[in-house]
Amino acid sequence: MAQEIEKGIEKFTEQDLAGLRNDLLQSGLDSWQAGELISNFLMGRGYGVSNQAARNAATRIESASCSLETMQRELERVALVM
Known about the structure:
By secondary structure, this protein is mainly alpha-helical. It has one domain (12-81). 61% of the residues lie in helices and 10% in strands. The chain has 4 helices and 4 strands, in the order ββααβααβ. The chain has helices at 14-26, 31-43, 51-63, 68-78, and strands at 3-4, 10-11, 47-48, 80-81. The strands form 2 sheets. Strands 1-2 form a two-stranded antiparallel sheet. Strands 3-4 form a two-stranded antiparallel sheet. A hairpin with a 5-residue loop joins β1 and β2 (10-11). The protein is globular, with a radius of gyration of 11 Å. Mean pLDDT is 84; it is low at 1-6.
């Protein structure tokens, strides 16, 4: 279960982030597919996200060695509260 933080965006659990990171790293996805994976991750948790923003986040996550802190920050940046 995710925890609420001040901005109305959830702090995702380490387990959720680690699962997403593993999916991104092990699947050999291109940026389009990685963006879809991020979009599905967020939509499955009640958030919206633009396709372009999800692809950009995937690129930033990849370039930052995919740390959990970076993933949380990028997901907060692109998630749209529905």
